[in-house]
Amino acid sequence: PGWCPRVVPARGRKSRHAPPAKSKAERVKMPPPVDPEELLVVLERYRQHRLELSALLAEFRAEVLQKKREERLSGEDSAELLAEHRRLMAWNDEENARQRARREERLRKEAEEEKRRKVEVAEKQARKMEAFLKEKEKEVLQLQEEAKSFITPETLDARIEECLDNPCNYNFAIDKDGRVVKRTVLS
């Protein structure tokens, strides 16, 4: 009563990570030889047996169902059952027609909604493309404006002269407020 095992060991089984026994380490398991002709015969016989069994079962089921149907219809209230069955089938047909009409209406609305959504997406895509083209056109015009001030081989000498005449000193220090604190003199 004082000691209770937490896991009951399974007799005859080793853990998954345990190696095989030393006496079984070199053993190669070979399946028993099977005669191919005999295997084909046995398989064919099993297939034939299963087919015959399934055919017999289907026959018995049909027979039992037929007997039940005959018993039900041969009762004294078979006319009432037939009338009830016809009434229920008529109600079922009406319900199916109503559900079909609802389904067709729903599918039509979904198709219209999908068509409307596709048109909206196409219009939105067209507007986006138009805005993109306008933006690219604006960028091209801006680049053309900037290209007027580019240095070309023809204007290279004039730009060199202009830079030599107006020297700019980039050697200075800035404090935390952004003011120039110290500037060196150009030499």
From TrEMBL:
<dbReference type="Pfam" id="PF14943">
    <property type="entry name" value="MRP-S26"/>
</dbReference>
<dbReference type="GO" id="GO:0005763">
    <property type="term" value="C:mitochondrial small ribosomal subunit"/>
</dbReference>
<feature type="compositionally biased region" description="Basic and acidic residues">
    <location>
        <begin position="95"/>
        <end position="115"/>
    </location>
</feature>
<comment type="similarity">
    <text>Belongs to the mitochondrion-specific ribosomal protein mS26 family.</text>
</comment>
<feature type="region of interest" description="Disordered">
    <location>
        <begin position="93"/>
        <end position="115"/>
    </location>
</feature>
<keyword id="KW-0809">Transit peptide</keyword>
<dbReference type="InterPro" id="IPR026140">
    <property type="entry name" value="Ribosomal_mS26"/>
</dbReference>
<protein>
    <recommendedName>
        <fullName>Small ribosomal subunit protein mS26</fullName>
    </recommendedName>
</protein>
<feature type="region of interest" description="Disordered">
    <location>
        <begin position="1"/>
        <end position="32"/>
    </location>
</feature>
<keyword id="KW-0689">Ribosomal protein</keyword>
<keyword id="KW-0687">Ribonucleoprotein</keyword>
<keyword id="KW-0496">Mitochondrion</keyword>
